[in-house]
Amino acid sequence: MPPDPVPAPLAAPVPIAALTIEPRAVEGRIRIPYRWPAGRTAGAFLARLRDEGRLYGLRCPRCKQVAVPPRPRCLACRVPSEDWVAVGPEGELLSWTTAPAAPARPAEVWALVRLDGADTALFHRLLDVPPDRLRVGLRVRADVASPTVRRGAITDLIGFCAV
Amino acid sequence: MGERVAIIGAGQTPHRSRRLDVSAPELIDEAVQAALADAGLEPDGIDAIVVGNMEHFEGIHLSDLWAVEGTGGVGKPHLKIATGGTTGSSLAQAAYYLVAGGMFPTVLAVGWERLSDSEGETTTGIVTAFDPIYERPTLAGAVSGLAVMACQYQARTGVRAEEAALVVVQARENAARNPHAHLSKAVTVPEVLASPLLSSPLRYLDMCPTSDGACAVVFTSRPGARRAAWVRGVASRHNHTLLGDVAEGAHDYINTLEQAAADAYGQAGIRDPRREFDVVEMYEPCTWAALEWAESLGLAPRGHAAALWADGTARRDGDLPINPSGGVLCANPIGATGLVRVAEASAQVRAAAGPLQVDGVRTALVTGFGGSFWSEVMILGSEA
Amino acid sequence: MQPVAILGAAQTRHVARRDDACYSELAFEVVAALLAETGFTHPRIDTVITVSSDFSDGRTISDMAVQDAVGAAGKSSSKVSMDGAFALAYAAARLTCGRYRTCLVVAHAKASEGRPREISRAAFDPFFERPLGPTDHVALGLQARRFLARGTVTREAVALAAARALAYANGNPNAHWRGALSSREIQLGPPVADPLHRFEVAPDSDGACALLLADLDTARAHAAARGVPVIRLDAVACATDRHGLGDRDLGLPGVLPQVARAAYAQAGITDPVREIDVAEVYDASAVQTLLWREGVGLPVDLLAGPAWNPSGGALCAQPGFATGLVRVAEVWRRLAAGEGRTGLAHGMTGFVGQAHCVGILRRA
Fold first, then answer.
1. Which of A34, A38, A78 has its CB closest to that of B59?
2. Distances (CA, A) of B156 to B150, B253, B261
3. Measuring CA to CA, which residue among C283, C284, C111 is closest to residue C207?
4. Is B381 inside a domain boundary?
5. Helix (H, G, I), strand (E, B) or coil at C343
6. What is the mean pLDDT of each run of 10 residues along chain A (163 residues)?
């Protein structure tokens, strides 16, 4: 067996403060694909949007409020909601905003729209509304993609246009 | 001093490889409704909610805010606890402390995970737990750390793979009676030994699965006349950041569980755990871990835990049933897994475990495991 | 709740980038400062609650990364994955149950290590909102428009709140943004999310904050030995609101009034305008500076009632989940310095107030 290596004499310790610290970073990226089953409630909403091109809400059996987007239970009363009601396609603009576009994304005008027959608001985008017409309370109408391209996603609704 | 804390109800979803029929909030709702029904409570009877999952497995940030659709937590205090594998046991401990500290009379703990949402990339998420400079480039996720532990255990004790395999053989037998279990098909020792090698000495059938599921447990200081499992001991021990530091010191095993157990046993007045516990629900992510941890818990002398499974002691009809539910080896929805142990043990103490019921359970031991070999222990009893 | 005490509070400076430190080093730095300030050592800290976001840290089980930095090895520790103010409820419970005498609470965030806008996208409802690509700033813009549409506050008042925050921050050595801008200059600045402009939306900061909590007996002994006042935590209340952007009117304070009432009831406060001397709220936008004020039951006029975000608030430093804990630290610092007797600290999880937490601190 070869002899154990003789350890090198220890260098005198250098205080950390005396070292020049080179800024150094390790880079990483987390790449995980995700797939979220939409379940009974969102799944039904999206399937009807795809198949019928229409928007639906769920009515709470207790407080009678119609939630769009639908929630499996009324968020206030905590009872199951199973009473689907058609809403829209017209509604009222409650809010909008523009934010500088992220790289590779077109500039958007995001909006909250309370559809006729609904008590809560749907988040989506506005399409071609001239800036001088934008106001809270503006009447808008859902623009749904043609049946051939709908795939059961919220983007089957292209957005809202001014009526 | 603090309030006495009781568990008065628990609910679980079936744990499955994928639950494509429900959204995450709907999955959570299943467990919450089952727990409320078991406790005989309306939603208004819950004063606060602690909820947890691990964000990288579903890719949902601020997941507690979305989970409110399923927990029924709108308008209520809602705390998110997320500590890796210990998430479920940390939720139970948080609920315990919030009730014991007098903050809220009744707290609902909700753990959930949908590992199928990350499409087979669960390990990609787990790897991010490790230090990006020193560890992440070379580590392979949860399996590698456990394999190192199993290697050490094997080298120290001489226990053979066929002895460790008995843990999963028994777990599957037990799971066959458990409607919530994810894996309940019987396996044999030769099948375990012939299953693919993951990281020596761990084989595929030595390891827990990845599951979709949720669990909810009701903790209260006001059980009234309800059947209660009283919390008699709560302890946890944490550890260093880097895995190389975790095993430092004189021990050739990682002693956080031994320390946490000693703390909890002191609180509950347990002197002879092997005799005094009527059932154990242990967080065993792999067969070998069950052996090492049975020893850390004082259920067998060091190096001799395999005998508990070999001689039938750990069977559901044995002298000290370990994981009559089938344990983590048969269902592992990570954020819920530790809470499932609490749910199962509380059901045993409350004589509400149905087909899994072990006769005459008065005292139960529960463990949780996660992070860098963190250990959490809870002791439940039929008397306060 | 039974009162507990806050023995000390420490912060790092909050800046755009701390390339000299990883986030466990930020946590270490702030814990070391807290120990130096209080004269405590790790063996005298019984239990630890850390606060962090796995997504923002780019690390699952992000609390594992700071275990050594906060001295948690061999102790019982846990993590609250919400804004740091919410961790007060858990820390206080660990003390009031009688198990522990001292509890360290540590929150950290390094916005510069990730892309905050991209990370924020992952917090939106995956079926109805996320496919459209909103960010936290989009949510703030929608909220601002709803708030202004109520007509109770002018556009000018919002810009003035931002200008005032920058001016206050000039006196805060830890602030990320400081400055002397008029409300007019702010309204002419670059838009962030219409109608909000730069300085009306909180920055993305690197920073950490730590508090040491203790039971009252330990606090009294500590105060007597060091000749410092006892600062009690008399109340912590929190609640979660609806999640979706359209599930409630974003221009209203939501569950915050209910949370504030619960905190006032716990602390025996009947007239917050007169009784509270200083308040620090988590304002991710200048609209929230005003909206949360309404939410805790104070008049909209910023010059009436308690000192309101005298640090500059989150508008001048927003280190992720540490932001709410910084509010508590700022209130603690002012009460300890004798600038009042009763303080309110507010934290928030969710960009537009999906969950609120209110703590009441009192100088004994």
1. A34
2. 10, 9, 22
3. C111
4. no
5. strand
6. 55 62 82 94 98 98 97 94 96 92 72 98 94 95 98 97 96
Q: pLDDT tens-digit profile of B285-321?
A: 999 999 999 999 999 999 999 999 999 999 999 999 9
- Interface list for B 217-246 with C (CB within 8 A): 234-242, 245
Cα–Cα nearest to B296, from B254, B330, B332, B359: B254
The whole-angstrom separation of Cα A47 and Cα A43 is 6
pLDDT at residue C126 tops 50:
yes
Nearest to A31 by CA among B298, B245, B119, C156: B119
Q: Which chain A residue is nearest to residue C151, measuring alpha carbons? A: A136
Hey, what domains does chain C have and what are their CATH numbers?
4-115+204-226 (3.40.47.10), 117-197 (no CATH), 231-363 (3.40.47.10)
Angstrom distance (rounded) from CA A146 to CA B96:
54
Indicate the pLDDT class of residue B141, thresholds 50, 70 and 90. confident
Domain that holds residue B30: 6-119+212-218
Cα B114 from Cα B54, distance rounded (Å): 10
Which pLDDT tens digit goes with each residue over B42-84? 999 999 999 999 999 999 999 999 999 999 999 999 999 999 9
Q: What is the mean pLDDT of chain B?
A: 95
Q: How many CB atoms within 10 Å of residue B139?
A: 18
Q: What is the DSSP letter of C161?
A: H
B197 touches chain C (CB under 8 A): no
First to last CA, chain A: 90
CB-based contacts of B366: which residues, under 8 Å, 6+ apart? B89, B92, B280, B281, B282, B341, B342, B345, B377, B378, B379, B380
Give B258-292 pLDDT, tens digit per residue: 999 999 999 999 999 999 999 999 999 999 999 99
Q: Which two tokens stand for residue B180?
A: 């919530």
Q: Does residue C174 surpass a pLDDT of 90?
A: yes
Residue B225 CB partners (closer than 8 Å, separation 6+): none
Q: What's the pLDDT score for residue A126? A: 96
Q: Within a 10 A sphere around the Cβ of C124, how many other Cβ atoms?
A: 28
Residue A16 CB burial class (10 angstroms; 0-12, 13-18, ≥19): exposed
User: Among residues B174, B94, B201, which one has the least CA distance to residue B344?
Assistant: B174
- Position B250 scores a pLDDT of 46
Contact A75 B69 (CB under 8 A): yes
Q: Test A75 with C247 for CB contact under 8 angstroms.
A: yes
Task: Name the residue among A28, A32, A38 with its Cβ closest to that of B132.
Answer: A28
Q: Which tokens is B101 given?
A: 């500290």
| CA B60 remoteness from chain centre | 23
Does a structural domain hold residue B365?
Answer: no
> And the tokens for B375?
């250990």
What average pLDDT does range B111-116 have in this prediction?
A: 97
Exposed, middle or buried: residue B303 (CB in 10 Å: 0-12, 13-18, 19+)?
middle
The residues that bridge with B376 in the sheet, in sequence order, are B236, B368
Distances (CA, A) of B304 to B163, B328, C14: 11, 22, 54
Residue B95 included in any domain: yes
Which residues on adjacent β-strands are paired with residue B233?
Answer: B379
Report which DSSP code applies to B355: G
Find the CATH number of the domain harbouring B80.
3.40.47.10
DSSP state of A123: E
The model's pTM is 0.96
Report the alpha-carbon distance of residue B12 to residue B383 in Å, rounded. Answer: 25
Residues in C closer than 8 angstroms to A111, CB to CB, are: 142
Q: Does B61 sit within 8 Å of C120, measured CB to CB?
A: yes
Q: What is the mean pLDDT of chain C?
A: 97
Query: Which token pair is A21?
Result: 């610290």
Q: Are strands B279-281 and C4-11 parallel, antiparallel or unpaired?
A: unpaired
Q: Is B20 on the interface with C (CB under 8 A)?
A: no
User: Considering Cα of B143, then B129, then B48, then B362, what sign does the dihedral take?
Assistant: positive
Mean pLDDT of C119-143: 97
